[in-house]
Amino acid sequence: MALPEKINRVSRWQSIFLIAWWIAVFAILFFVVESCARYVYKDERYWFDQAEYMAQKKPIDFLFVGTSRVYASIDAEVFANTMEQLTGKPVTALNMGRGYTTIAQYYFAIKHFAKHYPEAFKMCTIFLESSNGLPDMRAWDSDWILPEVWAQYILPYLTAKDIVKMWTTRLAQEQKYQISFLWFTQGSRLMLFDWDIRKGILQTGARIVKNIYKMFGIKDDLADNDTSAKMILPDGDNMDSFRQERARKLAVTIAQQDLKNQQPVDWEKTILKDIVSLVHNNGGKVVIVDMPVSSIQMPPLETDIRKQDKQKFSIISKQWKLPLMRADIKLTDEDFPDYWHIQKSRRQEFSGKLAVNYFHEILSK
Fold first, then answer.
1. Sign (positive or negative) of CA dihedral 134, 139, 141, 146
2. What angle do CA 168, 174, 177 make, to 5 degrees?
3. How confident is the model at residue 190 (pLDDT cuts 50, 70, 90)?
4. Which residues pair with 95 in a beta bridge?
5. CA–CA separation, 61 and 321 (whole Å)
6. pLDDT (tens digit per residue) in 75-88
7. Which of 39, 236, 265, 345 could pair covalently with 309 via S-S, beta carbons 3.0-4.6 A apart?
8. How many CB atoms lie within 10 A of CB 307?
């Protein structure tokens, strides 16, 4: 055998060995980090775990589902106690509001709950939030998740069939790639619960896919988004001054952005309609509840287009047998320390009055 051929063969085996060595190092490192993650996040739970755990023991009468506004505005214990006083019966209420969630996440979580606990679901009334009389207006081609934030709020509730169906929708390619990747790797608690690592991997993956698309001249809609600058926790009155000021500036900026390029809503194509159908078909009830909104965030909700959308929804909600309600409470911007969420001192009052209004306006009719 010629010397150059032997050298090439040795070099080839050295390359293979080097690749295998780095794969082994990565695998060991990932195993160690994943083991640490499983210890650190051993008590972490999925979003609707609390509701599903309680459904095994007793019926759930009321579920509040929505964004951080719901989380900040509703004291479920006060609401339940007030309802007990009014009805003379024991009442169970849970606040499932979470920041940086989407209505697509609500759909899949509610669907999972209805499928696995059908009897408990039939006893349940689900409250969905609205702002100034306008509920969530998004359709299925809008973002399903903010992947760098709370991925665990949707992944456990997606099935393989849902993933396949997702690829037939007009959802952005970036969302399809991210959701698919996260769904296949959700067995890793590191990927599911560690925000920074998940964010880094997704952003790196997005850049790789963009470069591949660029090499082949394929047009893409992938964006190098960084939502970390937009993180607002639903605890405005406990924020330090820096975070509170940042939250206020963001509220003003988003309100200004939402005034631009507004389009009329086709309520028949919204995810909301599918949620209402899902709940009704499984024997549950849905009620739309107005959540408190500061004057800073009101302008985008009061344009001519949105007023027309509100009028249309008022009509179509009757067709959907969807009650609309609000609490009789007067609030000022001083009650919104971060311009996003009402302060804790008003939460109990809001929740109690909401229960009273629900009893008189809906339950007693």
1. positive
2. 65
3. low
4. 64
5. 19
6. 999 999 999 999 99
7. 265
8. 14
**Angstrom distance (rounded) from CA 314 to CA 308:** 10
Give yes or no for a contact between 60 and 124, defined as CB atoms under 8 angstroms apart. yes
Among 270, 263, 62, 95, residue whose Cα is nearest residue 278? 270
Q: 291 near 130, Cβ under 8 Å?
A: yes
Choice among 29-33, 196-200, 244-248 with the minimum mean pLDDT: 196-200
Residue spans of the domains in the chain: they are 8-40, 49-363
Banded model confidence at residue 231, pLDDT cuts 50, 70, 90 = very low
First to last CA, the chain: 95
Nearest-CA neighbor of 105 among 132, 145, 57?
145
Residue 107's pLDDT is: 96
Strands 125-131 and 93-95: what pairing? Answer: unpaired
Distance CA 208, CA 173 (A): 14
pLDDT of residue 247: 87
* 19 phi-psi bin (left φ>0, alpha ψ -120 to 50, beta other): alpha
pTM, to two decimals:
0.80
Question: Would you call 270 helix, strand, or coil by DSSP?
Answer: strand
Predicted confidence at residue 261, as pLDDT, reads 87
CA distance 146 to 205: 15
Q: Are 154 and 108 in contact (CB under 8 A)?
A: yes
Q: How many Å separate Cα 271 from the centre of its chain?
A: 13
The secondary structure of residue 292, as a DSSP letter, is P
Burial (CB count within 10 angstroms: exposed 0-12, middle 13-18, buried 19+), residue 24? exposed
What single string gives the DSSP state of each residue in 23-74? HHHHHHHHHHHHHHHHHHTTT---TTHHHHHHHTTS---EEEESSHHHHHH-
**Alpha carbon 161 to its chain's center:** 20
